[in-house]
Amino acid sequence: MQKRPFTNYVPYTLSTKFPLVATLGCCFLPIYDPHSAYRFHDCTELLYCHSGRGMLVSENREFPFQAGDVLFISPYMPHYLYKTGSASCRYESLHINLAQMYDPAIFPDIIQFAGQLLVPFSIPPVIQRCQHPVFGEIVWRMLRELSLYQPYFEMSIIGYCLSLISMLRLMFQNHENSGRDAVAGTSLYPALLYINRNFHKDISIPELANLCCLSETHFRRLFKRMFSMSPLDY
């Protein structure tokens, strides 16, 4: 596989009251372009494939998907999407911060679990319709609820998210028991998680390198290669 060029950070401004934004309507994946960059963002993305087939590329690995499947893209997970085949690949997506969706005083277990989901590949990136039809149905209903924009739709979305979280916990447990992807254990994600949770503090590069069990030089080089920016710029 040809190496992707520079990685782009795509920020999403989410409300603290309702931390979710949706990309609705006729959204189509492009054809494969070797010059297009990876991208990553600071929230969870749920992408619902309405029609056609596509490919999710992350960490130089390919994950095919088709109509009815849902992509679970973790924060800070560099990825590239394109359609496969001659037919168009239409999708809609949700960008959500699960940790901010619920009151930590009432749902501390959800907040803790949302922190575990920050690690890419903690959930299989492609949640297939044939294996998890109810999950895809709920994501589809959320997209429809958001498109109708009727009164009290926020309450419906919060309820749907609770259902999704319960199913994600089962997937997480099953995935953990079966032996997680080794890629997640040898990457920079321990440092990324630490930055995400302690961005308001003074953080040193040696401290981040130590979290990843890497030398400072190797950590800087690996970080630059993955995100096309230095740890300090990040």
Task: Give the number of helices.
Answer: 8
DSSP E strands, number: 10
What letter string, H or E per element, gives the SSE order? Answer: EEEEEEEEEHHEHHHHHH
Taken as a percent bin, the fraction of beta residues is 15-25%
Strand order of the largest sheet: 2-9-4-7-10
| Broad shape | globular
Largest sheet: 5 strands, antiparallel
Q: Cα-atom Rg, whole angstroms?
A: 18 Å
**Helix percentage:** 25-40%
Uncertain segments are: 181-185
- Find the structural class using helix and strand composition: alpha+beta
Overall average residue pLDDT: 86
Q: How far from one another are the termini? A: 27 Å
Question: Can you characterise this structure?
Answer:
The protein is of the alpha+beta class. It has a five-stranded antiparallel beta sheet with strand order 2-9-4-7-10, covered by helices on one side. A three-stranded antiparallel beta sheet has the order 6-5-8, with no helix packed on it. It has a two-stranded parallel sheet with strand order 1-3. About 30% of the residues are buried. A hairpin with a 2-residue loop joins strand 5 (about 55-60) and strand 6. Helix content is about 35%, strand content about 20%. It is built from eight helices and ten strands. The radius of gyration is 18 Å and the shape is globular.
